[in-house]
C-alpha cells in the first residue's frame, strides 16, 4: 500500500513572515493520515524545519546540483539541502528544464546525487501543449521517465510527479481520463525499469485546488499531488490535504 503524499512547491515565493502559513498548516493537520511535504526556497529550508517543530511535515528543496560540492557559484548541493533540514528535493521541474536548459541526463544526475545524500528525489516530468495536441504525450513522458530515473532508484527514495506543462499555473487541468492514461503508462514503464515499481508514488501536478482535488485523487495510480500556487496559503492547501486523506 502506497502512503499518499500531499506536496507543495513554493517556487520562488516566501519570506520569513510566510512561515506563519506553516504554523497554520501544521495546526490544521496535527496528525495527518497522509505524508505532507513543502518544497521551500533554499533560503527558508532551515527556518521552515524549525517552524514545523515536532510535526511530521517534511521539507524539500526545489533543485540540487549533481556534485556534492565545488566551484558552482549560486548552486546548492544535495548534502547542503540535507544539512539544512530537507528530506526531499524536486528535480527536473519543467521550470528548471525551461529556464536552465536541464536535460533528462542532468535530472538523472541530480536524482542520483539526492539519493547519495539520503534525500528522496521527486522527479518531475510532463509534456507541453504542442506535444499533447500532436498526440505525443505518452511517448514524451515515457522517454522523460526513462531518461530521468537514475540507477539505484527505489520506491523509498523516488517519487514521480506528472505535471503537464500546459496545466501549470493556468487553471487548465487534464481530464481524469487523460491523467489516468498517463499514470497507468508511468506505472507500466516503471515495471520495465525497476523491481519496486508498485511502491513508487505517482503525483499529479498542475492547477490542483481544493475544488478539483477530490476527483483527481479518485483516479487510479494517483498517489497525491504536487501543488504550486495553492500550496502558498494554509487555507488553500489544507482542503487539498483533507481531500487526499479522504480519497
Ligand atoms: O510544482 C508545482 C507545479 O508546477 C504546479 O503548479 P500550480 O499548482 O501552480 O499549477
UniProtKB/TrEMBL annotation:
EC number: 5.3.1.1
Reaction equation(s) it catalyzes: D-glyceraldehyde 3-phosphate = dihydroxyacetone phosphate; L-erythrulose 1-phosphate = D-erythrulose 4-phosphate
Record's keyword terms, sorted: Cytoplasm, Gluconeogenesis, Glycolysis, Isomerase
The keyword Transmembrane is assigned to this record: no
MF terms in GO: triose-phosphate isomerase activity
Major location (coarse): cytoplasm
HAMAP family: TIM_B
Reported function: Involved in the gluconeogenesis. Catalyzes stereospecifically the conversion of dihydroxyacetone phosphate (DHAP) to D-glyceraldehyde-3-phosphate (G3P).
PANTHER family per UniProt: TRIOSEPHOSPHATE ISOMERASE
Protein name according to UniProt: Triosephosphate isomerase
Encoding gene, per UniProt annotation: tpiA
